Amino acid sequence: MTEKELIGKIRELRQIRPRKDWVLLTKTQILGGVEVRPQPFLFPFFRPAYAGLFVVLILIGLFEFSQSALPGEPLYLLKRVVERSQAVFVSESEKPKLNLELANRRLDELNQVAQNNEVKKLAPAINEFQANAAIAAKNLAKVKKVDKEIVAQIKKLEENKEKVEKVLATKIEMEEYDNDLAKLVENQIKDLETRTLSEDQQKLLEEAKADFEAGNYSDALIKILDLSQK
Amino acid sequence: MANLRKIFSKIYDRYIGKIYRFIFFKVNSQEIAEDLTSETFLRTWESFKNENQEIENIQAFLYQTARNLVIDYYREKGKVQLISADYHSPIIDPRQNLEEKAMLRSDLNTIRMALAELKEDYQNIIIWHYLDDLPISEVAKLLGRTEEATRVLLHRALNALKNEIEKA
């Protein structure tokens, strides 16, 4: 046997190895029974690195879930907070539209509560609607030029209110809103009276005045809008 | 402490096979080799976690502890270093040919028995350099010799092993 062959044979003795189970057991015994071999995570969210992501996912889930919450429910507060935070990023000129839209949402909720006969939620739903209608009214007073979307929201609000009143068999008071809407229509009519109008426009203005006198403010606004577009 | 455990866990994984084999060649018993190897690591862990005791070279520390334990084992138990021809080693061989396998096993057993017959320094230098792949400089440190003296010792150890194999 040459030296090279002998060295080759010596190296084959590397096949002598300790038993795998003994190696693991001894390691556990020496290191105080602590599991030192990293185990695959069954729940990766428990890793600190994923904690942030986990929290974000929980918040997204809560946010989504809260969007269908009704007044008087625990998640309703979150829904309102989200709406308020959205309002922060809206420009002053867009606020009347947004507040009208929110008032309409409150009416939808009230309608849902009324339809489902959820008596306990009725009072908070009416309060929420009236509070939103008051905010919408304040913003209506700031409107200088009526546009299509504002008129659509006002019309929708009136229709929704009628539906709810039918279900509840009672009238929902929103005096503040009505007053501010009347002021808006009045201001628009006054403004138009100072302008030179064509025959058609003059005719529409007269019709709008008649609606205003009859208390049909949304109809008056529609005519004012038509008039300004001619 | 958790960090120390983590570090020692890596040391354990790296050296367990080498220390087991080192001891096994000297005691020729799986059971005794396992006992002495776990004792080696237990003692090293005790020293490792002791703040007052700094280990400069963990490899040298492990081999020295293993050597001391083997010496103690023979001294205290009054055992004689015997090699049993019937001993079934846990050698794993991937070859399928039975005749070839038998020849190989016989070859390896001959070398293993011859290695066990060598004096301690010869045994250690062959194990460290050819089995554990330690460079001459590392082996020299473990033996406390110069590199030149270690090369000479390695040459003599191989010749001694060859003679033992021829005798068998």
Please, could you describe this protein's structure?
By secondary structure, chain A is an all-alpha fold. Helix content of chain A is 72%, strand content 0%. Chain A has helices at 3-12, 20-30, 48-66, 76-88, 95-115, 119-140, 148-168, 175-193, 199-214, 217-229. The longest helix of chain A is centred in the middle third of the chain and has 22 residues, at 119-140. The termini of chain A are far apart. Chain B folds into two domains: 1-84, Rna Polymerase Sigma Factor, Chain: A, CATH 1.10.1740; 95-168, Winged helix-like DNA-binding domain superfamily/Winged helix DNA-binding domain (Arc Repressor Mutant, subunit A). Chain B is 76% helix and 0% strand. Chain B has seven helices and no strands. Chain B has helices spanning 2-27, 30-49, 58-77, 98-117, 120-131, 136-143, 147-167. In chain B, helix 2 (30-49) packs across helix 3 (58-77). Chain B is globular. The model of chain B is unreliable at 82-97 (pLDDT under 50). Classes of the chains: A mainly alpha (230), B mainly alpha (168).
Oligomer designation: heterodimer
* Helix content range of chain A: over 70%
Enumerate how many helices of chain A there are, as a single number. 10
Tell me the structural class of chain A.
Answer: mainly alpha
Q: What gross morphology of chain A would you assign? A: elongated
Write down the overall geometry of chain B: globular
What is the strand and helix layout of this fold?
The complex is a heterodimer of chains A (230) and B (168).
Chain A: H1 3-12, H2 20-30, H3 48-66, H4 76-88, H5 95-115, H6 119-140, H7 148-168, H8 175-193, H9 199-214, H10 217-229
Helix pairs in contact in A: 5-6, 5-7, 6-8, 7-10, 8-9, 8-10, 9-10
Chain B: H1 2-27, H2 30-49, H3 58-77, H4 98-117, H5 120-131, H6 136-143, H7 147-167
Helix pairs in contact in B: 1-2, 1-3, 2-3, 4-7, 5-7, 6-7
